[in-house]
Fold this protein.
Amino acid sequence: MTQVVHTRDELAAALDKAPLDQAASGIAVVMTMGALHDGHRELIRVARQSSAFVVVTIFVNPLQFGPNEDFEKYPRTLAEDLEACRAEGAALVFAPSRDDVYPGGPPSITMNPGPLGAILDGASRPGHFAGMLTVVEKLLRLTRAEVAYFGEKDFQQLALISRMVVDLELGVRIVGVPTVREKDGLALSSRNRFLSPEERRSALALSRALREGAAHGDPEAVLAAAHKILSEEPGVRLDYLELTGPDLGAVPDDGPARLLVAAKVGTTRLIDNVPIALRKAV
Ligand code: AMP
């Protein structure tokens, strides 16, 4: 049985009553903005493997959207989302209103994402990561989470949250889950539903570029291969294509790295990334 609550008082009451043996195995949380797809469902499935009590939060956080971004038109599909949570065996769904999350109105004190939050998406979306970290920290506390699951799809977000729980000693374990893709490679995203059939075809260039890049071991060859694919697709307006270390730091000569891309297709902004194994030339 999946219980659904909408206010922080209802959430606290439900957590107080969480079966003790289940709570003993740890409360796990999966945070989402709704419009759930199989990527979200995979997070719930992975969480269920180690926790009997999985809380899913559904909240489109206004604080992490810029003034010209898609907060108003972001898809909201609560009835279907609750069905998905039930089907995956979530114990509890917390779907609060804006006023319940921010009872005092927009907060004047927010998280500072630091230097890691200033690069990549942080450079393109000022204020996004401060807003994201502020709500994540709140929801970790409100749900009393011991472990929280986040997708590698939003790799910089995962890196920042992992850093936040260490730096602020929040005592929560953060687990990353690999990106779920369509058969043709497109990373699942709630925003994919905005794409026309033609835009969807163009959007495939992102995952194709990452895949072609990942076939190389030399940093210059990785970037050249990926850039070539993207430049051949006129429907894609590139924001960034960057190769970094595995934690978004400097690119190593050899070993694990990450290739990340962000682009606009029509009016829809998409992001994707893959792990890369760099090999030093001999
Ligand atoms: P969102 O609802 O887009 O804020 O995403 C909620 C959570 O689902 C985040 O941890 C995302 O990284 C994760 N997520 C979104 N899309 C995918 C995907 N295709 N594969 C795996 N995780 C995902």
Remarks:
- The chain has a mean pLDDT of 96.
